[in-house]
Write a sequence for this structure.
């Protein structure tokens, strides 16, 4: 979807810059060399010609919106008529007066302040109108693509070990399918490894079907349309064959920006979650999500944006505000703070007793635990202790010693520390504030695991942490 900026005047330039910031494709038509140069210096694609000249015929193709804020009234009228004829669906945005004829605004303050404020406000209005238009067109295109398959079956794929954003976005897509008389079914590969994801899927009653990669071609064959959400590259951390071309791709990961050959591909790195994008489509279509779906989408946005603190855009804020009033609050509370099993409480209790402190690091050996899922709870809990920057919790499950690590914001990179400490003996890694790993104990070797963890493993982590 492309926006044509007709002449590179003051307001049009501001609009062009704002649109580009939002990742919207812009082409500038400016015949005056000075302004054309400025457009190019701003990094714009610029056609140095009048928009009505034959040279402009190529670059103007595919335009969805024409912006003529700096064009005088007479010329706007003439151009608008011609655009309307050639691009019946395009939006044409112009000021209703000849802005260039109104330099007097500058005299209000004597310093041009009023002029600048006026332009900024106009530019914002124009950009929001364009965004509105784009959102509508985008939903129209999505609907067209979904309906074009002939049959009713829609296979909705998401990535392996799907997180709340992926699950909620897929459920939202299934709801859109339902509205269109289609039947969406959600597929994913891998297992829901993270406890939070499993809790979420269960509480929200997500209709997920797990697939092995070898079964995906069969599912694709039987579907009228194939949709990929919260992922962009077939075969990369999802069960789609790498050569598959989905009909629809909805994602927000920048790495997938230019990869998909889908009929409808919308990858918006500027947006915090795929749930936000799906919510926008629901709104455009006039579908009011039921309380469960609204809660799922809201939690999807929250997890991917760390409760609107990270990677957050106004679109995420708007979608959250909209969903807040619709979501099942009780369900949302439960999803956000899942109750802990009493056996987990026992492990936390043991962890508190067993913790050892080295500087601002805590090390905890819990001994044998029922499940690897118990350890993150211990780590999360102990991280609340005063003046603690990092927590490493160890436990044994069968033949494995597992570790779960957490750190405070600005604390040590526990993912890297875990990776380095386990380099030779096991495997580990993770993010700055969250890490994990495991070591498989050798069978038949008589060793004192308790002693080994405390005397060998703890120091290896301290070393890796540079302590
Ligand atoms: Mn996501």
């Amino acid at each position: 979807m492309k926006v044509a900026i007709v002449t590179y005047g003051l307001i049009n330039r501001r609009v062009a810059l704002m649109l580009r910031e939002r990742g919207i494709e812009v082409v500038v038509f400016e015949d005056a060399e000075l302004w054309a140069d400025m457009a190019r210096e701003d990094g714009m694609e610029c056609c140095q010609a009048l928009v009505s000249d034959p040279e402009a015929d190529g670059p103007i193709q595919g335009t969805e919106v024409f912006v003529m804020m700096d064009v005088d009234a007479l010329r706007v009228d003439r151009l608008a008529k011609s655009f309307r004829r050639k691009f019946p669906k395009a939006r044409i945005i112009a000021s209703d007066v000849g802005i260039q004829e109104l330099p007097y605004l500058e005299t209000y303050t004597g310093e041009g302040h009023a002029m600048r404020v006026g332009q900024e406000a106009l530019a914002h209005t124009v950009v929001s109108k364009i965004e509105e238009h784009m959102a509508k067109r985008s939903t129209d295109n999505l609907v067209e693509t979904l309906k074009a398959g002939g049959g009713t079956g829609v296979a909705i794929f998401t990535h392996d070990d799907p997180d709340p954003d992926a699950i909620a976005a897929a459920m939202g897509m299934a709801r859109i399918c339902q509205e269109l008389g289609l039947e969406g079914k959600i597929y994913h590969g891998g297992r829901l490894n993270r406890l939070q994801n499993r809790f979420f899927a269960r509480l929200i009653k997500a209709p997920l079907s797990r697939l092995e990669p070898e079964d995906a071609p069969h599912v694709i064959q039987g579907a009228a349309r194939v949709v990929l959400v919260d992922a962009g590259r077939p075969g990369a951390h999802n069960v789609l064959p790498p050569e598959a071309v989905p009909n629809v791709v909805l994602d927000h990961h920048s790495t997938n920006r230019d990869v998909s050959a889908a009929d409808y591909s919308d990858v918006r790195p500027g947006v915090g979650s795929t749930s936000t994008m799906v919510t926008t489509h629901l709104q455009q279509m006039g579908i009011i999500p039921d309380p469960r779906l609204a809660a799922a989408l809201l939690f999807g946005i929250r997890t991917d944006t760390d409760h609107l603190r990270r990677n957050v855009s106004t679109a995420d804020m708007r979608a959250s505000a909209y969903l807040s009033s619709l979501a099942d609050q009780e369900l949302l509370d439960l999803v956000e703070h899942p109750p802990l099993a009493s056996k987990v409480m026992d492990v936390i209790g043991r962890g508190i007793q067993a913790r050892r402190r080295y500087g601002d690091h805590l090390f905890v050996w819990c001994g044998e635990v029922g499940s690897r899922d118990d350890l993150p709870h211990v780590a999360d809990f102990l991280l609340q202790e005063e003046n603690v920057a990092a927590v490493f919790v160890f436990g044994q499950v069968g033949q494995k010693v597992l570790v779960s690590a957490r750190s405070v914001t600005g604390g040590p990179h526990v993912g890297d520390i875990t990776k380095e400490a386990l380099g030779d003996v096991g495997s580990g890694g993770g993010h700055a504030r969250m890490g994990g790993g495991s070591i498989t104990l050798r069978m038949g070797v008589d060793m004192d695991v308790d002693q080994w963890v405390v005397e060998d493993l703890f120091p290896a982590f301290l070393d890796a942490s540079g302590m």
